[in-house]
Structure formats: C-alpha cells, structure tokens
Amino acid sequence: MTLVCTVLPTYNERDNIAALIEGVLTNAVTPHMVLVVDDNSPDGTADVVRTVANRYNTPNVQRVALYVRTGQKGLTSAIQCGIDFALESFGADIVTWMDCDLSMPPADVARLVRTIVEEGADVAVGSRWVEGGDDVAHGVMARTLSYVINRCAVALLGDQVHDYTSGFIAARAKVLRALRLRGDYGEYCIDLLARAARSGFTLVEVSYTCVPRNAGESKTGVNLWDYLVKGRKYVATIWRLRKGN
Ligand SMILES: Nc1nc2c(ncn2[C@@H]2O[C@H](COP(=O)(O)OP(=O)(O)OP(=O)(O)O)[C@@H](O)[C@H]2O)c(=O)[nH]1
Ligand SMILES: [Mg+2]
C-alpha cells in the first residue's frame, strides 16, 4: 500500500496544528501519517503535537511524528528536513506539505494524493490560479503581486503550472530523491516546480481556495515592504531559472 507522509513545518502554530493534523488524517485515502517539523516554537506548538500524537499513535503504528529543531530555523530547510525523514526513516511513497495556518484546507490533501495515485501524476500542485481556485485570504495588493509574479513565471518558465508559488504540494518519492529544495522561503517552490517539469516529471494542478489564516500571526508580514522584498526574491529566482541555472 502507498504510504503518504504529510510534512507540516511550524513556527508558532499552537492554535492551528491540532485541527490541521486531524483534518489531514481524517480525510486520508491511503495509509497516511504526518510529521511536524517545529523550530522550537516558543508558543508550545510541540506540546500540542505531543498531545495529539498520544491520541493517534499505537505501539504498532505511528501516525503523528514530531521533530523539534533547535539549532536551525527556516521554512525551506524545515520542509527538506521533513522530506528526508519521510523518505529515509518512514519509507514514504508520496510526500505532501503545506502551510500550517489552515489557509490550505486539510481535506484537499486527499485530492492532491488522488491525483498522483489515480491519475498517475508525479507532482500534484495545489493551485489558486486555475479554474475553480481562488485566494480569498489576501488583500488586493498581495493577490495582485502573486498573480503578476505567477503570470511572469508562466511566460518565462512554461505553463505546466499556473501557481508556481503554491507551497501546497504532493510529490512521489522519486521526484524528491532527484531534486532537493533550494532557497529560503517561498521561492523554493518556483525552483522545485520548474526543475521538476524540466526533468520530465508530470505535474498536474488541483484547484483550491486559499482562505485566511485561522489563528496566530503571519511570518511573512503584511505590509508593502515585506511583499516587495518577497517579490524581488521570486523574480530573481524566475530569472535565474530562465537563464538555465
Ligand atoms: N519550521 C518552520 N516553519 C516556518 C518558519 N517560518 C514559517 N514557517 C511556517 O511556514 C508556513 C507559512 O507561514 P505563514 O506565516 O503562513 O506565511 P505565509 O503563508 O508565507 O504568509 P501569509 O500569506 O501571510 O499567510 C506556516 O506553517 C509557518 O508556521 C520557520 O522558520 N520554521
Ligand atoms: Mg500562510
């Protein structure tokens, strides 16, 4: 049977993580576990995960795993750390990952998994920018910036994906053995999807609606300056990939 591992990178997601784990596991369509990679959040996220793990895990089956990093911080490295554990320690056939603020509906993880298992995709990409998808989480400024950056990415890198900055991904183990994540924050996603397409893997988009963060604070920031700093990195990544690097 196909084992799916959902990697959940957390920093201060105490009030979101229990519902997220439950939402993912309740909707699972195949053997499914979650691995939370927490960067020693001061709000006690790890304690919440331990409590949830006690409910789900049995002596024979681990469905909720937790890895607390103390010496390292950052979204991309946390996801890569989770991918490495999922492949090497748990033997996952498919790894998925997502934000942990409940902006990506946990029930939609099963739709990504089905796209791989039933449709034969190598990578399933949760997409806001295809028919049926939307972003109702962000204001006009952030949405417009995201849309424009993604249109640039489509024009310069190809239209196999329309939401290069998705961050809501499921991928077969073979893809993640071939390609490691590069970058600090959201730009890793542009980089991974462009290289996956270039490497001949099949990418299929699954529409989803990004909804507002449930609780806690955004780590990205909310003002124009924060968005421009993020946008500059995304554009630089698109340009580097366009030049073939
Ligand atoms: N492990 C870990 N997770 C992180 C770190 N920074 C952010 N995250 C997680 O990355 C995910 C995305 O963070 P958000 O704060 O929602 O930021 P965002 O989605 O880019 O921005 P918004 O659009 O404002 O929600 C969440 O699950 C965070 O907890 C980090 O340094 N380490
Ligand atoms: Mg978010």
Structural commentary:
The protein is built from 8 helices and 9 strands. It is globular. It is α/β, with parallel strands linked by helices and 245 residues long. Strands 3-2-1-4-7-5-8 form a 7-stranded mixed sheet, with helices on both faces. The chain has a single domain (4-242), classed as Spore Coat Polysaccharide Biosynthesis Protein SpsA, Chain A. It has helices spanning 17-26, 45-56, 75-88, 108-117, 140-157, 173-178, 187-198, 224-242, and strands at residues 4-10, 32-38, 64-68, 94-97, 123-127, 134-135, 169-172, 203-207, 209-210. Helix 2 links the parallel strand 2 (32-38) and strand 3 (64-68).
Poorly predicted runs: none
Computed structural class: alpha/beta
| CATH architectural type | Alpha-Beta Complex
End-to-end gap: 37 Å
Number of individual domains:
1
Strands of the biggest beta sheet: in what spatial order?
Answer: 3-2-1-4-7-5-8
What's the β-strand tally?
Answer: 9
Small molecules bound: guanosine-5'-triphosphate, magnesium ion
Determine and state the CATH class: Alpha Beta
State mean pLDDT (0 to 100 scale): 96
